[in-house]
Amino acid sequence: MNPILLVVIVVGALAVILFIVGLLLTARGPEAVVEERLEQYTGAPVATVERAPAEGGEPVFKRVAEDIDRVMTKRGVGGGIATELARADLKLTVTEFIILNLLSVVGVAILAAVMFRGWPFALPGAVLGFFLPRWWVRLLQRRRLNAFNSQLSDALNLLVNGLRSGYSMLQAMEAVSEELPPPISVEFARVVKEVGLGLSYEDALANLVRRIRSDDLDLMVTAINVQHEVGGNLAEILDTISYTIRERVRIQGEIRVLTGQTMLSGYIVGFLPVAITILLFLMSRDYIMRMFQTTCGWIMIIVAVTIIASGFFAIKKIVTIDV
Predict the structure, then answer these.
(1) Which residues form the domain of 304?
(2) Which residues contact 224 (CB under 8 A, 6 or more apart)?
(3) Which of 89, 178, 221, 235 has the least CB density, counted as fewest CB within 10 Å?
(4) How confident is the model at residue 55 (pLDDT cuts 50, 70, 90)?
(5) Are residues 142 and 84 in contact, defined by beta-carbon separation less than 8 angstroms?
């Protein structure tokens, strides 16, 4: 294919996709944002007021974008995506994430075809582009969960001190949302807002556990719910849980230090062949491309990837110790 024609096709496709993305992103008005947030807290759809169309047809695009996002969120797949985005604390709607995923698929596929000088490489690039946004969301979720777990012990101490000084549970949670940094302050502020909007403690805490998949948080919420049903000294119970969490974090840190060298060996074993392949591709493209142009080369690649992945996951399984 003519390189100039290829560049024109790539630029045209990206321009069309970016136009659609910009259209949907700018189509969400402030009313839609307010409705989404109220629906998130109350758990029920908010009645919307019909607006008269303005000049230029912009409300039509707004209405279409809002309807698409509302329908996608209520579906099974769309609801799962919305939950994953909430766990990562990404200010994206389901429609925006799907468009971002399509952009990643098209962009990585075209990049792979241009880099390796062949359209057959566009299919592996498209597969990689499909999973890249999901890996990014999972990375943000893991970072946020680790930050939340590291702050949970301090939050429990604040809750215990507040309860012992005469605060109610809601006032103690509000103190946590004001004194501690994100992400734990954001999550406890959401609980306070949900209770203020009419939800019960059990429902608000259940929403918190659904957003933050933490075993320590589940233990805390279970203790609060049990105390709410049968009574007891909640401050003493939370103090015991806080001590347990601190000891668990300390033991996990010691395990991480002892297994750090082995885990580093696993990363080297897993990613060193990939780095060497990229280096050879940059130094001598014709030499390394012979492996991708023969059946024997593809068999070697498949066997090598299988062996390397098996070794990496075996090392990771050995050094992963649950506390």
Answers:
(1) 259-319
(2) 169, 201, 205, 234, 238
(3) 178
(4) very low
(5) no
The CATH number that applies at residue 156 is 1.20.81.30
Are both 129 and 187 inside the same structural domain?
no
84 plus 114 within the same structural domain: yes
> 44-48, 173-177, 201-205: which has the minimum mean pLDDT?
44-48
Instruction: Give the rounded distance of the alpha carbon of 264 from its chain centre.
Output: 25
What total number of domains does the chain contain? 3
Q: Which residues contact 273 (CB under 8 A, 6 or more apart)?
A: 304, 308
Give the per-residue pLDDT at 33: 47
CA 187 – CA 221 distance, rounded (Å)? 13
Do 209 and 190 share a domain, yes or no? yes
Are 112 and 197 part of one and the same domain?
no
Contact 247/148 with Cβ under 8 angstroms? no
Q: What is the pLDDT of residues 195-247, one digit of tens each?
A: 888 888 888 888 888 888 888 888 888 888 888 888 778 888 888 888 888 88
With b meaning 16 or more CB within 10 Å and e meaning fewer, what string describes 84-97? bbbbbebebbbbbb
Q: Are 62 and 69 in contact (CB under 8 A)?
A: no
